[in-house]
Amino acid sequence: MEILQQLENLIDIGKKPEELQKEINVVEVANIWNELITRYYVLEETQILLNFVEDYDLKVILKSGIKRLNEQIDSLEKLEKKYGIPTPERNRAEVVDSVKPETMTDKYIFQKIFFGIRSFLDIHVEAFKRTPSPKLRELFKEFLITEVEIYDKIYEYGKLKNWINEPPAFRI
Question: For the chain, which terminal residue's Cβ has fewer other Cβ atoms within 10 angstroms, N or C?
């Protein structure tokens, strides 16, 4: 797939967005849009939750996630600009809140992030499955692989902290 992706990139050099729009379909545009709008939402939510985290390791994990989200957002915004796709309005850049409700525990924050990562897997799989363009499929594949690796690491972290609700062992 890398050869096809590189070939497409060479062919695209110097083309205007109007010409490039003929190379992608409406489903691919929707996938790009969905990937970006979802990241905007997740970035804002992660920034809000970061303000309430007390566990040092969880803070590091969330900050790492924010960095990754911003990198992926930049990549998707460049793609939208390249194809002339209108970019959705970006959420607030930074969220600061000084009041911490008692229900906002580190376990709650972890589980919110954990289930968010789990749902992102489905978004990446659908985008990958429904994209005929090799260069876009490669991008969605990279997002999916990264998300699977993060899911695996955060799952183990959650087990270590006893924040994962695992079903009981089944013995006869």
Answer: C
Query: Tens digits of per-residue pLDDT, 7-65?
Result: 666 666 666 766 666 677 888 888 999 999 999 999 999 998 998 999 999 999 999 99
CATH class of 15-161: mainly alpha
Q: pTM score, two decimals? A: 0.81
Sequence-ordered list of residues with C-beta below 8 angstroms from that of 39, at least 6 positions apart, any chain: 69, 72, 73, 76
Hey, where are the domains in the chain?
15-161
Q: Taking a C-beta distance cutoff of 8 angstroms, is the pair 39, 116 a contact? A: no
Q: Is 98 left (phi over 0), alpha (psi -120 to 50) or beta?
A: alpha
The pair of structure tokens assigned to 84 is: 């002339």
The secondary structure of 83-114, three-state, reads HCCCCCCCCCCCCCCCCCCCCCCHHHHHHHHH
